[in-house]
Amino acid sequence: MERVEGGVRALSQLFARGDVVILSGAGLSTESGIPDYRGPTGMRRPATPMTYQTFTRDGVARRRYWARSHLGWHNIARAAPNAGHQAVGRLQRQGYVGGIITQNVDGLHQAGGADPVVELHGGLDRVVCLDCGDLSGRADLHERLAGANPAFDHTSDAIKPDGDVDLTDEQAAGFAIVDCVRCGGMLKPDVVFFGESVPAPRVQACFQLVEKASALVVLGSSLTVMSGRRFVVRAAKLGLPIAIVNQGATKSDGLATLLLDAPLGTVLSAVAWSLRG
Fold this sequence. Notes:
The protein has about 280 residues and is of the alpha/beta class. It has ten helices and nine strands.
């Protein structure tokens, strides 16, 4: 594992090549107050993720999900991009970054100035109708849910990685969900649930970014899930330099040419500063 100073120099040299592709994970957003899935130790936090099958087939579970997510949206909506997000945005604007793939659904890359960004798992700021396919904004849904549940006054600051909070079944009971304003169909956040596949065109677009890259830099991901790890595997097969900046071990450490265990905001700010021109 590189010392921080040497790691920053080596990472800066990679970015100086240009056409670097970034693959980011939940660890990049922890400095914005959004917890990651596994923490620095790599041990999974206690959680029961919502699956697509449960969401669509179990009305009670769907109601519970929306009650929790309705409360959690307050925290996601007010989260601000941190120094790491802002540094990535600067590096992209300066021409060092050829593509950004994020596994995060919080929209903080874009809020930090990055554009374009491939949201591998979608975004919590959008809602999709599973019947007619209509996309709408989460802020509008939040207002509709608030109107449908005027007496729902539970609060929680204990945000979870997927943007919801913990509620007991008793607290969620009676929460009224709303349907698509266009067709009356079932609404779902525009994110990929467990048991649901990332759309094939999106995956292919990510592979194309990697294949054109000069290097792949992983930021804040344990790479436990193959959804993101496959791009590291492809980069390794192509012989690309792979840098992993993460607090804790990852499942692809053996493929990396540079490993740096340090706070991402500090490291990325230092890299952006060294390449400011």
